[in-house]
């Protein structure tokens, strides 16, 4: 008996996200059968949570750009926003006027399984992905991961055999993933058990200007909403899996925390990527000196994100969510240093803070030149003053929210958390920040440098300090103080000190190399590791 000939009919989705197939009827003598693949009944939503600045925002502020506050995938928006001065940035990125924007169009996937489909099929798929929230996140950065997960999580087997890239993953799992703790090989029984589920991939953008406890509660609500949606369609669905990038890890932890979102019972497991688990000293650097600029595209990115410290501070000091990226009380002490002379191993440090509490010792300091925030940069638009609000007091209010969030979150992790972070010498980050003098300074007595007067600040990481008791080698009572280049291995943003902090509190942790912070999920080994983690979680061994 000859095998029945078949032709593949693509899976489509109706307006409620239910999969179906359609085929044109033909004459009886045409014996080629339509072959349609329908997902398994049991649903585990996979929910991606982006990092700070990775969610699209709209705004009712007068300075909005065609209604948008933050839309990094829009050339029209970026071309205008990159020239916004601190005053306009402050007004536009006001947390209370911003909200999630989902108007972004879903781009085509640059892979054959997508491009080989007709335009009607592509349009149907993109409409479904938009329904799942993909348009709320920065797809130029996260789109490749979302498409990768959507396709491969739902095609673990083909024709009764383990499909690619799962075959290669199971053969080479662990190779190229760096130093691993808690690693156990994915076995075929686990993959088979995982394959008995449909994994619709969702994305949840959030208002990253607000405190992360608010974002966590919002995410918890979305988890409940997605589960309820699939149950209403008749699918067994009890729990979701979260995949996070950067600050999205803090949001996911908040969503699961019993005193914040309390959604842990609805989450099967969490995959954390490049999370600033205890903060990052890079945040202090950028508030003083702006974002790092390289060549070409990197320069344009820095102009959008904030070229100067004043650009960054106008948003940062007014946004609790941004302040929550600062090193917290669990970060290694003494990360802010002042050197009498020299850098690196030759530095002669005369000040090393905090001893215990960065909020009190650094962030609330208003007068010392090494303070976190320059008071005059908080309200460049005069908006707060016009509303009879003291800018410094408003900043302290936001700082209080940041501290309260950090204290509540503590070192909490969902019981099934799987972590990877960057520890690459080629992608160094500020694990500590050191200020050092340019040239030799003389007649230095205890307390003179740290108590010097700030004479000028170029907002790019160079200060002019003055003290009547100190002489520079030019015999002047003032000198330049600069910020040292980064020394910690990391991913260019999060230093190893913070990335490895979850160790001992999570099921699995990978110390990796080869990627920068924002592009981590575009790295093939990170994508493979993410598939591994999800399969382990869903396969029952989590």
TrEMBL record:
It comes from the Bacteria. Residues 480-491 have a biased composition (Polar residues). The lineage of its organism: Bacteria, Pseudomonadati, Pseudomonadota, Betaproteobacteria, Rhodocyclales. This is PGAP1-like protein. Residues 480-501 are annotated as: Disordered.
